[in-house]
């Protein structure tokens, strides 16, 4: 198969005024689900009281670990359990969970394995919202919070050496405003200027080496506790069966899906399933992702 011909055939003009989505995300942090974490000991710029905020990040779950109460791993958390805290993002019952100690929400929104997923959550003082890959998918009201700043923990529970995440995290951004749906839709698939107004923390994990990871916006630097840097993968359509590997099983899975008109077989995202999707899939598969 001549990849260059395929690439040429698939080249489509980008709409004027719309910049292409980011493809190079530098490094991500990888957590082994056993004892890896990354911790900012003190993050004083985290929103407090009932202040509005936005927390967003890329997450890829490699396996669902089994912990008490249906938890499959903690992605990130702020402060101490039992004291109001910024929304903790967890994996629970294979779904995205948002927990504050009280309330603890299983949003029912699936977080599929081996799928690079952008998660954003906003709090406007009364309503918590969840956005996946730039689109709002869930919301719920809650009583005013009494958030406190404190440490920030990635990859495990903030109070216990437990609830470890088996997966990847990248491009963590915390804002001291509830970003609008339009703002989230406009920036979820690209990096932002570290000097952006209202951006109070920006951890992109792109340091080349060392145990320290930097907050590009607020200087709230942290330390790796076992987590390792890996090249951050882009969403990989070639891993059609979502087992974190690209091999012939994916070709079979794709072709079966394509014949059955599985919506996921719309590889090029144009709303129809046709031979262009076969070309797009094979092109991605030949490229390794
Ligand atoms: Ca990165
Ligand atoms: Ca696969
Ligand atoms: Ca298509």
Describe the structure.
The chain is an alpha+beta fold and 289 residues long. It has two domains: 28-231, Jelly Rolls, CATH 2.60.120; 236-287, no CATH class. Helices cover 14% and strands 34% of the residues. It has four helices and 16 strands. Strands 1, 3, 8, 9, 10, 12, 13 and 16 form an eight-stranded antiparallel beta sheet that branches. A hairpin with an 8-residue loop joins strand 14 (212-213) and strand 15 (222-225). The model is unreliable at 1-18 (pLDDT under 50). Bound molecules: calcium ion (CA) (3 copies). The site of one calcium ion (CA) has 10 residues, from strand 1 and strand 12.
Write out key terms for the chains shown.
289 residues; alpha+beta; Jelly Rolls; 8-stranded antiparallel β-sheet; disordered N terminus
Report the bound ligands by name, code or SMILES.
calcium ion
CATH architecture title of the largest domain: Sandwich
- Report how far apart the termini are: 16 Å
How many strands appear in the DSSP assignment?
16
**What is the count of structural domains?**
2
Q: What's the shape?
A: globular
Helix content: 10-25%
β-strand amount: 25-35%
Mean of residue pLDDT? Answer: 88
Radius of gyration: 19 Å
Instruction: Classify the fold: give the CATH topology of the largest domain.
Output: Jelly Rolls
Can you summarize the main beta sheet? 8 strands, antiparallel
Q: List the helices and strands in order.
A: HEEEEEEEEEEEEHEEEEHH
Low-confidence runs: 1-18
CATH class identity of the largest domain: Mainly Beta
């Amino acid at each position: 198969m001549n990849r260059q011909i395929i690439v040429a055939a698939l080249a489509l003009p980008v709409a004027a005024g719309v910049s292409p989505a980011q493809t190079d995300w530098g490094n991500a942090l990888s957590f082994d689900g056993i004892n890896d974490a990354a911790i900012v000991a003190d993050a004083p710029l985290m929103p407090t009281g009932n202040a509005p905020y936005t927390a967003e990040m890329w997450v890829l779950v490699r396996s669902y670990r089994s912990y008490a109460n249906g938890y499959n791993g903690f992605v990130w958390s702020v402060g101490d359990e039992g004291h109001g805290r910024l929304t903790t993002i967890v994996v629970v019952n294979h779904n995205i969970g948002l927990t504050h100690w009280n309330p603890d929400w299983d949003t029912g929104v699936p977080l599929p394995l081996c799928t690079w997923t952008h998660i954003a959550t906003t709090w406007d003082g009364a309503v918590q919202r969840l956005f996946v890959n730039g689109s709002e998918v869930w919301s719920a009201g809650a009583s005013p919070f009494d958030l406190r700043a404190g440490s920030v923990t990635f990859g495990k529970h903030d109070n216990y050496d437990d609830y470890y995440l088996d997966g990847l995290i990248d491009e963590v951004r915390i804002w001291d405003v509830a970003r609008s749906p339009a703002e989230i839709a406009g920036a979820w698939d690209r990096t932002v200027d570290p000097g952006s107004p209202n951006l109070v923390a920006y951890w992109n994990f792109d340091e080349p080496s060392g145990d320290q990871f930097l907050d590009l916006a607020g200087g709230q630097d942290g330390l790796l506790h076992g987590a390792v840097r890996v090249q951050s993968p882009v969403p990989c359509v070639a891993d059609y069966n979502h087992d974190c590997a690209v091999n012939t099983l994916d070709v079979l899975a794709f072709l079966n899906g394509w014949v059955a008109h599985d919506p996921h077989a719309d590889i090029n995202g144009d709303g129809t399933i046709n031979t262009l999707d076969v070309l797009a899939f094979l092109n991605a598969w030949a490229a390794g992702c």
